[in-house]
Specification:
By secondary structure, this protein is an all-beta fold. The chain has no helices and eleven strands. The model has no long low-confidence stretch (mean pLDDT about 95).
Length: about 120
């Protein structure tokens, strides 16, 4: 079983910064893609940014230039550095990881419990 534990959410003023962390624990062979999603009430969960084990990244247009996803493969940890935060960034942020348990095996998707980010105007 794999667990994802997030930390770093909170309340910040517009223009400020926050850094989220997500550590994966459990027995795994490899974690291919790790990323961050966010969700607000009544809306679908949306991708914020993701990173492969090789370091390739992908971002939502709304956060490009402001948010940065990084990871420490040795620690199975992914980070989300959020700068120039806006009130519309307010959401619950979820960590996601695609985990393989054996070479060539299927990848399974796991989610963290979510952490609230609130940006005040």
């Amino acid at each position: 079983q794999v667990q994802l534990v997030e930390s770093g959410g909170g309340l910040v003023q517009a223009g400020g910064s926050l850094r989220l962390s997500c550590a994966a624990s459990g027995s795994t062979f490899s974690i291919n893609v790790m990323g961050w999603y966010r969700q607000t009430p009544g809306k679908q969960r949306e991708l914020v940014g993701a990173i492969t084990s090789g370091g390739s990244t992908n971002y939502a247009d709304s956060v490009k230039g402001r948010f940065t996803v990084s990871r420490d493969n040795a620690k199975n940890t992914v980070y989300l550095q959020m700068n120039s935060l806006k009130p519309e960034d307010t959401a619950v942020y979820y960590c996601n990881a695609h985990v393989q348990f054996r070479p060539g095996g299927p990848a399974f998707s796991y989610w963290g419990q979510g952490t609230q980010v609130t940006v005040s105007s």
